[in-house]
């Protein structure tokens, strides 16, 4: 049996989606593929068992799911944090290995989702390097290089992993930086002995959220177009200027949410004349009748929230762009990108999979 740990240099690199796509590719080659996530950071309770949100979704996507309690044996809940800070010992490596053994029983390949960043899991004894050594695995490192900087996180983590590193994927690269990533960053990493199996472009649709998710995140009240809450939002803009400038500004982006004060009718009307999916009205200030009438005509939800604009922006920034895996369409799209832009054969050879 072979084991691949998919880990990353920083949050929101698309690690979970890549792990799921890799499972699908291996399964289509006739291999019995299992999944394991030793350290979960998105706690949920499923059938009375603590687990991780992504781990639950990916395990259920397997042709032969494992017992959920084994799939993610250590979950960073608030209670877990308090226990560790109070001096409690984390679960032993023997316990983690026992869970892995049950998940891997009869499998040809195990895909293990490692920590989000190198330091994550250290307090629990489950950093990327430790997990790779513990499970005798090769590591696929996912990086999203900063636009105008050297790929130092990838260099540092690659060096720390040593011979365990199979290679890297550079993921979520903006169109304007693709040429640099492919012709300069990837060759640079290769010259340092770190194979790069592919450079994957940024896809705005993968980070999109529904308007309903925005409503939930902001605790808002929907005033118009309540039948459009399943529409997807790919980005957001803040409206704090005059109407003439606002119109030019809002035309720059499509499929967006606009955040503005509830008393800014001029900005709201300008937003409605562009490709706007919803408008978030801050300060608990309801819009004018003229604005709500126009929004209803155009089918644009207006969401009234109690928070100020800065708080709404911070919450939206954390919400949009973070790829939520629990969507079959997104999962299929990730796999399509992976098969198109990654040298899968080279990746599998590096992981010693025929």
Strand content: 15-25%
End-to-end CA span: 11 Å
Q: State Rg.
A: 23 Å
Uncertain runs? none
The chain-level structural class is alpha/beta
How would you sum up the major sheet?
6 strands, parallel
**What is the topology, as strand order, of the major beta sheet?**
2-7-1-8-9-10
The portion of residues assigned to helices is 40-55%
- How much is the average pLDDT? 93
Q: How many helix segments?
A: 15
Strand elements, count: 17
**Rough outline:** globular
Give structural notes.
- This protein has 354 residues and is α/β, with parallel strands linked by helices.
- The protein is 41% helix and 21% strand.
- The chain contains 15 helices and 17 strands.
- A 6-stranded parallel β-sheet has the order 2-7-1-8-9-10, with helices on both faces. Strands 12-17-16-15-14 form a 5-stranded mixed β-sheet, sandwiched between helices.
- Strand 4 and strand 5 form a beta hairpin.
- Helix 1 (15-28) packs across helix 14 (328-341).
- The N and C termini lie close together (11 Å).
- The relative contact order is 0.13.
């Amino acid at each position: 049996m072979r084991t691949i740990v998919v880990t990353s240099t920083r949050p929101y690199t698309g690690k979970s989606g890549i792990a799921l796509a890799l499972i699908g590719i291996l399964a289509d080659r006739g291999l019995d593929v299992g999944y394991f996530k030793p350290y979960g950071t998105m706690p949920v309770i499923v059938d009375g068992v603590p687990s991780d949100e992504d781990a639950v979704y990916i395990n259920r996507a397997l042709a032969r799911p494992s017992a959920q309690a084994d799939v993610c044996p250590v979950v960073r809940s608030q209670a877990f944090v308090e226990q560790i800070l109070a001096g409690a010992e984390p679960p032993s490596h023997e316990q983690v290995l026992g869970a892995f053994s049950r998940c891997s029983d009869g499998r040809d390949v195990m895909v293990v989702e490692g920590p989000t960043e190198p330091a994550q899991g250290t307090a629990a004894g489950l950093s990327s390097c430790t997990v790779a050594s513990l499970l005798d695995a090769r590591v696929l490192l996912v990086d999203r290089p900063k636009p105008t900087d050297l790929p130092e996180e990838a260099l540092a983590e690659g060096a720390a992993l040593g011979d365990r590193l199979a290679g890297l994927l550079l993921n979520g690269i903006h169109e304007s930086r693709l040429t640099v990533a492919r012709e300069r960053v990837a060759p640079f990493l290769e010259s340092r002995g770190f194979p790069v199996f592919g450079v994957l472009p940024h896809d705005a649709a993968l980070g999109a959220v529904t308007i309903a998710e925005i409503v939930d995140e902001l605790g808002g009240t929907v005033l118009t177009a309540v039948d459009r809450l399943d529409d997807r939002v790919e980005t957001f803009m803040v409206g704090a200027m005059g109407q003439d400038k606002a119109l030019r500004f809002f035309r720059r982006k499509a499929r967006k949410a606009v955040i503005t004060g509830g008393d800014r009718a001029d900005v709201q009307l300008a937003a409605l004349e562009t490709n706007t999916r919803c408008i978030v009205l801050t300060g608990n200030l309801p819009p004018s009748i003229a604005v709500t009438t126009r929004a209803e005509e155009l089918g644009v939800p207006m969401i009234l929230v109690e928070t100020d604009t800065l708080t709404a922006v911070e919450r939206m920034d954390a919400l949009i762009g973070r790829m939520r895996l629990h969507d079959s369409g997104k999962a299929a799209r990730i796999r399509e990108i992976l098969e198109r832009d990654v040298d899968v054969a080279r990746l599998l050879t590096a992981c010693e999979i025929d």
